[in-house]
Design brief:
heterodimer; A: alpha/beta; 2 domains; 4 strands; B: 4-stranded antiparallel beta sheet; 10 strands; 38% helix; 25% strand
């Protein structure tokens, strides 16, 4: 059978390729033999080094000479050099002598490439630890930088949105349609599913409590009002954050990593106008539409649930009309529009802030979702305060 | 066929994607210890051929034997064993972005060898030293230049001291000095340690100084149009396409 492919892993078990022998107190020898490679050296390497260390410790290092005999080697590779260098370095460190014997001259040029070998053993300096004050300060600085980035981005985005309104023909409508389809139509099933579930849970939980007071008929109006004012916009926005904000961040992030964003800038084009504006416009369009869809599905599922408690559709409907005004629906949709803006803008911002490498894109997508949800909560809070003050 | 002499045997290989055939019915072999260079204009299928050779893509038809073992049909453990017998450097480096250079090189050692952490680190430093990147061992791939990434990728390809190295355009994007250093390292490894190199390259200067044998591919011929020593081909080839390539003649002047 021809010696076709060597089986490196099983070969290591046979005979040791390096043997340590101590001739006397001041002289020792390492004899290499056979096929020396990265697999056959495993184990032997450590063994030889341990014996060498013990020997050097015994003799105090000085005037101890080690002979490295490579005359019986049939083939060696880069790992053999590393082994040789490791032994030589230990010898040098202790102040002893080191000599190579019988090494095929053809290996000399490669061995020369590693000189001086001390470069291969860098001093391991432990990283200086940062103190509590320093790390707190740095965290605060990061926060400020982030806030600053957000403010600058908001300014640019506002300017470019106004520009787009005035130059309506120059908006990248193709990108807008793509983003709207991806963020909108493709999101209908998941939004519908979650909205249905929320409608059921909301009315069920409310009904359990209200039943004790014989007020089950009020569950319909309560659930409907909660859905159109709060739950509809909120679940839609959170789903948009999870789906589209992350998608925008990953897409623009990959473009940043590949220098595509730089190419836009050096071409004299605004990346905000090219990349962000179409996506934010798509967010503005799809968020209220998805919210309206979520409202309808939720209220329908609530209606179905209340059937169990013996409330007919018509009673639910009438109760709902009494409680929910057009104003309430509009208020919810306006809020959804704002959510659409912040969710898509945060996704784009995090995408543009992407560092380098594959991991950075993942980090950007994660940051986009987290920031979007934080912004949703913030906008919702501000909106709640305003509607409490103004009654809208 | 002599498995002892040939590191790689390519038999009736057809390379392509679906119905798009790039190269048809290739037959050639790479001898042990040889520096074998694949040439050809852009888009003629050099990189695709390389990916078929090291088993990343399945050829449309034909076989590739690596040290006598058929990589196109091998499965499981047998395939993994063939995979550890060669190293690959991709055109863009393809370093792992989340690890520094040293960890990039030690990754495969961790998986396949029993060495200790210190031994792996020393071995990895030797590899980085060979490609001139020793001072950068703690750098992340994103912190070094494109040319350095390529060299680090070569160091990673050599991690387990495989007998065969596939390099996809190793010297493209390197400065002339670094490129010459790299050539001399390749020559050292080949002549002294007996490494076999399969290299895709356009750099004529580098090809003349290192290549033992070249094959030249052509998009229209869908196959090999010239084979042999590059200097001999340059001086004696009658084929206008080969002549044009080796003498850097512009296409409009060639006709």
């Amino acid at each position: 059978m021809p010696m076709s492919i060597s089986d490196p892993i099983s070969m290591s078990i046979d005979t040791p390729v390096a043997v340590w022998s101590q001739l006397d107190q001041s002289r020792a020898q390492v004899a290499l033999s056979g096929v020396v490679n990265v697999y056959s050296l495993a184990g032997v390497w450590s063994e030889v080094r341990q014996k060498q260390t013990a020997w050097l410790a015994q003799g105090g290092g000085k005037a101890q000479s080690l002979l490295f005999d490579a005359s019986k080697v049939s083939s060696l590779d880069g790992s053999a050099f590393a082994f040789l260098i490791d032994v030589e370095e230990a010898q040098q460190k202790a102040g002893g002598q080191f000599e190579i014997q019988g090494l095929d001259p053809k290996y000399q040029p490669l061995l020369q490439e590693f000189a001086p070998i001390s470069n291969l053993f860098p001093d391991s300096t432990p990283k200086p630890k940062t103190g509590f004050v320093v790390s707190t300060g740095m965290a605060a600085q990061d926060l400020l930088d982030d806030a600053r980035g957000l403010i600058i981005f908001t300014g640019h985005l506002t300017a470019d949105l106004i520009w787009s309104v005035r130059h309506i023909n120059q908006v990248r409508w193709g990108d807008f349609v793509n983003a709207a389809v991806q963020a909108g139509i493709a999101a209908l099933p998941i939004v519908g599913l979650v909205a249905f579930l929320i409608g059921v849970i909301l009315s069920f939980q409310a009904a359990i409590g209200m039943e004790q007071f014989g007020a089950v008929s009020f569950v319909g109006p309560l659930a409907a009002l909660g859905i159109v004012r709060e739950m509809g916009p909120l679940i839609t926005a959170i789903l948009l954050a999870g789906r589209s904000s992350a998608a925008f961040a990953a897409e623009i992030g990959t473009m940043t990593v590949n220098s595509e964003v730089d190419a836009l800038v050096t071409g004299g084009l605004s990346p905000i106008r090219f990349l962000v504006v179409p996506r934010v416009l798509a967010g503005i369009l799809v968020a209220p539409i998805l919210t309206l869809f979520a409202d309808i599905v939720s209220i329908f599922s609530s209606m179905l649930t209340m059937q169990i408690y013996g409330i007919p559709f018509i009673n639910f409907y009438n109760g709902m009309l009494a409680a929910v005004d057009v104003e309430d629906i509009l208020s919810g949709l306006l809020k959804a529009t704002l959510f659409g803006v912040v969710v898509s803008a945060m996704g784009c911002l995090r995408g543009m802030q992407t560092g380098t490498g594959a991991a950075a894109v993942g980090i950007s997508a994660t940051r986009a979702v987290v920031s979007s949800i934080v912004m949703i909560v913030l906008v919702d809070g501000i909106f709640a305060y305003i509607s409490y003050r103004t009654g809208f | 066929m002599d498995a002892l002499d040939n590191a790689i045997d390519v038999q009736n290989l057809t390379v392509g994607y679906g119905s798009n055939v790039l190269l048809q019915n290739l037959n050639f072999s790479v001898k042990n210890g040889e520096i074998f260079v694949i040439l050809g204009g852009s888009g003629c299928g050099k990189s695709s051929l390389l990916k078929n050779l090291f088993g990343l893509y399945q050829p449309l038809t034909g076989d590739v034997l690596i040290e006598g073992q058929n990589i196109t049909t091998a499965q499981g453990a047998e395939r993994q064993k063939i995979m550890t017998s060669f190293g690959v450097m991709y055109q863009q480096g393809a370093l792992f972005g989340s690890m520094n250079l040293l960890d990039n090189v030690t990754l495969f050692m961790e998986e396949y060898t029993q060495l200790t952490r210190d031994q792996m680190n020393l071995l990895a430093r030797c590899k980085l030293d060979l490609v001139g990147l020793l001072p950068y061992e703690t750098y992340m791939p994103s912190e070094i230049s494109g040319g350095m990434q390529k060299r680090a990728a070569i160091a990673r390809a050599m991690a387990l001291d495989p007998k065969i190295l596939f390099l996809d355009e190793p010297s493209a994007g390197l400065d002339p000095i670094t490129s010459a250093d790299l050539d001399s390292t390749i020559l050292d490894l080949s002549k002294n340690l007996g490494f076999t190199f399969v290299i895709v390259s356009h750099e004529l200067a580098s090809i003349y100084s290192i290549a033992d044998k070249v094959i030249m591919l052509d998009k229209d011929a869908k196959g090999i149009i010239a084979e042999g020593d590059p200097k001999v081909l340059r001086d004696t080839s009658k084929d206008p396409r080969v002549h044009q390539f080796f003498n850097r003649i512009m296409s409009k002047d060639a006709a």
